[in-house]
Amino acid sequence: MNLSDYLKILSDKKNLSEEEAENLADMLLENNFDETIAGSILTALKVKGESADEIIGFIKSLRKHASNLGIENAIDIVGTGGDGLSTINVSTTVSILLSNLIPVAKHGNRAASSKSGSADFLESLGYNIYIEPNNAANLLKKNNFVFLFAQLYHKSMKNVAIIRKKLGIRSIFNFIGPFANPANVKVQLVGVYPISYLDVLADAASRLNYEKIILINGEPGLDEVSPVGESFIVEVKKDKIDKYKISINDFKVNKVNISNLIVNSPEESAIKVIRSSLGLDKDVETYIRLNTSLGLYLINKVKSLEDGFELSKELLDNFLNRIKEMVSINGNIEQLNKILVKAYGNKN
User: Fold this and answer.
1) Is the predicted pLDDT of residue 51 greater than 70, yes or no?
2) Which residues, other chains included, contact 136 with Cβ-Cβ below 8 Å and sequence gap of 6+?
3) Residue (of 184, 227, 180, 223) closest to 75 by Cα position
4) Would the pLDDT of 346 be above 70?
5) How distant is the alpha carbon of residue 68 from its chain centre?
6) pLDDT tens profile 235-244
7) How far is 79 from 6, CA to CA, in rounded Å?
């Protein structure tokens, strides 16, 4: 089938099989195509609602087109994005904090539907995001953290990157990116938006041979732990699926004003995170610690989220030391110092 054939099927709101979806993804990743038709296909998939088979097909295609790094035993903390709230880069911050305890291969990209992608955030802190595949494993071994810039590790994605940017809306690539980490991670935390896709993505994850993967959506529509209400979690171990809810009340902390978490640029996100580590931004501090607690539970460092919340304070207090270490090994310390000056300059 050609792209027009796939567009007709999807416009009729019919699902593709896993094999058909993989073939479609191959065409998008490998071929030159009409941008209008390709954009219409992504839109039609979103309007119809992507099925687990379609998501798995796209994941398999993206994985086989990715660089092979030979990395083992790393984890990843990532979100689908697309919630439209433009909050701080909490998944990337949690990844940095957890790298004190376990190797983290952080897979990410520049912003597509938000104000600050993980690549933008790290770059604003002075971290060098352009790590070639042949150096990734060495940097991870040296520093317990490596950023895998999707544009370098999924070079075939350049064919759809422009379309995604023009569309400016959530697409199937938001869903498949988190599951296509080139480090082939088997333990992962994935924030999901919208909540209606929690079960769909859990179904897909249960068929992708993860050791442990936690998927989460938090009120009022975050792909993170909610700082204002309930969070809905699906935990997958191999093919076993457990569902449960947690609440901000479980942590015995005050609700956060979400408007205080919103940023308009990567630099603002970096400054807010730095200030939270200094005890100067309590709302951001709470938000980071809530999400870190789930990360600590993911890697079996704590038995309860409440214990994780307590340990997260120690990790966040050490954020500046950790990011200085990371940037000194792989980055521009002058850029970091510029951000630090701005963060300290806003103490009042």
Assistant:
1) yes
2) 69, 71, 105, 146, 148, 183
3) 184
4) no
5) 20
6) 999 889 999 9
7) 28
Going by C-beta distance under 8 Å and a sequence separation of 6 or more, which residues neighbour residue 142? 329
Structural domains in the chain, CATH included, are 3-64 (1.20.970.10), 75-323 (3.40.1030.10)
Residue 156's pLDDT is 87
Whole-number Cα distances in Å, 326 to 38, 43, 139, 208, 269 = 39, 39, 10, 32, 18
CB 343 within 8 A of CB 335: no
Q: What is the mean pLDDT of residues 224-240?
A: 95
Give the residue-averaged pLDDT of 142-154. 94
CA distance 58 to 176: 7
For residue 48, count other CB atoms closer than 10 A to its CB.
Answer: 17
Per the listing, tokens 């993505």 go with 201
**236 and 215 in contact (C-beta within 8 Å)?**
yes
Beta bridge partners of 245: 232
More confident residue, 53 or 150: 53
Report the C-alpha gap between 140 and 145 in whole angstroms.
5
pTM over 0.90: yes
